[in-house]
Amino acid sequence: MLDVRRMQVLRAVVTSGSVTAAAAHLGYTPSAVSQQVAALEKEAGMALLERVGRGVRPTAAGQLLVGHAAVISQRVAEAETALADLRKGRTGRLTVRYFPSVGPTLLAPALARLRREHPGVAIDPKLSDPDDPLPEVEQGNADLSIVVRRPSDENRQGIRVVHLLDDAYQAVLPTEHPLAAQQVIDLADLADEPWVGSEPPGPCLEPITDACAAAGFSPDFVARSEDYATAQGFVAAGLGVSLIPRLGLGTRHPGVATRPVRRPEPIRRIYAAVREISLAQPALRALIDALTDATKE
What we know:
Elements: H1 4-16, H2 19-26, H3 30-44, E1 49-52, E2 55-58, H4 60-87, E3 92-98, H5 103-117, E4 121-127, H6 134-138, E5 144-149, E6 159-174, E7 185-186, E8 194-197, H7 206-214, E9 220-224, H8 228-236, E10 242-245, E11 256-262, E12 267-275, H9 282-294
Parallel strand pairs: 3-4, 3-5, 7-11, 8-9
Antiparallel strand pairs: 1-2, 5-12, 6-10, 6-11, 6-12
Helix pairs in contact: 1-2, 1-3, 1-4, 2-3, 5-9
């Protein structure tokens, strides 16, 4: 195998015209340069230089390797420039996983800010697996996932989770429902109501069922929808009451009323999950900052 560093020494000899001149340019002794060229000739199995007067000139094999050495040098320079751009956040690509209700309210303004601050970074946002998006981050298929975590969830090795916000669930009632006249609803007051499910099984449903259990009952789901707009439509049609998080109520159905819930207040906790090693990327850190600031707007 040819040694790339020795190829660059050969290139210096050929461009300088002599071993002595190349040694002066490289800061080596002439003996060290000669040894490097000799070792490269042994690797190549052919003579690479021939003497001409007081100087040297490349053989056909030497000229071939000098040409490749020049290409390698150019590629290394390009790689160093590209790496510097990536290190400073001027280029790169970020793949983001998210779930629907945070898209318009949280992710969109954060990505708009990131694009202004890092215009050379390509952004690839995609909806995530609702069951568990963390494997996407762990396996390197995503740089950042916005996730809902349970209080009991353990930290995974190599993964950093950054708390973004606590998203409280609100009661969603038909506008003519007697409880719609109240400013705040005790969760126990919904115990005997038929319920419209708004969440799939998993970390978004558990805050609802856990809060209902704390209030002394289990909700009687007579209809289910994993789409907040459809769940509101079911409520407006009189099928039952529902709990929907605030982020899911950006578009309000005209036939429903929403009220805060207490005793207890169900809350889903939303985090950004990234690989620890990826935090060296300035653009990724900027995205986390933008997401955090978006929760305050």
